[in-house]
């Protein structure tokens, strides 16, 4: 049976096909963020990422729960797992002020003066010279 992965049978007798709830949720999320035009596979990729992320967070939360020797998983364990995942997985860009300060320091150094003409590396690093070696018979050549 060849079935479109975005659609599943809802058991309706008239042949109507319903979209799975999670795919519909991701579709609504994309639309709410202004991504109306996207490939159909995007929803499945986001669903896969969501599943992987949530599974890893729950596994990390279970590790924190075990470390704290608690009987049940609670909200603090999940928050700690999310925070550790965010700190390690998603990096934040440096502050704008810091980047402006680095740019000012870099731009304060003047560029070197360019001399006219063609700029080539030293001759030993150029591929302009002949690169032929002749082997004589006494050196083992045939």
Summarize the structure.
With 142 residues, the chain is mostly helical. The chain is built from four helices and two strands; from the N terminus they run ββαααα.
Report on this structure.
The chain has 142 residues and is mainly alpha-helical. 47% of the residues lie in helices and 3% in strands. It has helices at residues 21-32, 40-67, 75-89, 96-107, and strands at residues 8-9, 17-18. A two-stranded antiparallel sheet has the order 1-2. A hairpin with a 7-residue loop joins strand 1 (8-9) and strand 2 (17-18). It is elongated and about 80 Å long. It starts with 7 loop residues before the first strand and ends in a 35-residue tail after the last helix.
What is the strand and helix layout of this fold?
Layout: E1 8-9, E2 17-18, H1 21-32, H2 40-67, H3 75-89, H4 96-107
Helix pairs in contact: 1-2, 2-3
* Strand numbers in spatial order across the main sheet: 1-2
Largest sheet: 2 strands, antiparallel
Averaging pLDDT over every residue, what do you get?
82
Derived structural class? mainly alpha
What is the molecular shape? elongated
Tally of alpha and pi helices: 4
What string gives the helices and strands in order? EEHHHH
Distance between the termini: 69 Å
Could you give the count of β-strands?
2
Question: Helical amount among residues, as a percent range?
Answer: 40-55%
C-alpha-based Rg, rounded: 31 Å
Q: Give the amount of beta strand, in percent.
A: under 5%
Low-confidence stretches: 1-13
Instruction: Give the oligomer, counting copies of the same chain as homo and different chains as hetero.
Output: single chain
